[in-house]
């Protein structure tokens, strides 16, 4: 993954903003950090059923928040989260 912000709190805020935009169904910006693009591509490649999408993204967001509180420096990808859930 490309270099995310060095401050964990800033990174988590940016991650939460990205997930909120996805849950809302529209992204209101046109500039992304390289790590955000990687996460977006990973989310797209996971092919989540539309009916389960919001629930999966919310559970993923909570898992990343817990991961970051425990000291992780980058958010895990959705594909990693889904593989742990199986």
Give structural notes:
It is a single chain. By secondary structure, the chain is an all-alpha fold. The chain has one domain (8-85). 63% of the residues lie in helices and 0% in strands. Helix 1 (8-24) runs antiparallel to helix 3 (53-69). The chain is globular.
Give the secondary structure arrangement, pairings included:
Layout: H1 8-24, H2 34-45, H3 53-69, H4 78-85
Helix pairs in contact: 1-3
Roughly how many Å is the radius of gyration? Answer: 12 Å
Report helical residue fraction.
55-70%
Q: Write down the domain tally.
A: 1
Distinct helical segment count? 4
The main sheet comes to: none
Number of strands: 0
Separation of the first and last Cα atoms: 23 Å
Unreliable spans are none
Quick overview of this protein structure:
This protein has 86 residues and is mostly helical.
């Amino acid at each position: 993954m490309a270099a995310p912000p060095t401050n964990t709190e800033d990174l988590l805020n940016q991650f939460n903003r990205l997930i909120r935009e996805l849950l809302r169904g529209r992204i209101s910006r046109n500039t992304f950090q390289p790590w955000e693009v990687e996460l977006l591509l990973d989310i797209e490649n996971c092919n989540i059923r539309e009916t389960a999408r919001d629930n999966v993204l919310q559970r993923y967001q909570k898992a990343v928040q817990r991961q970051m509180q425990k000291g992780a420096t980058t958010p895990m990808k959705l594909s990693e989260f889904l593989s742990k859930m199986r």
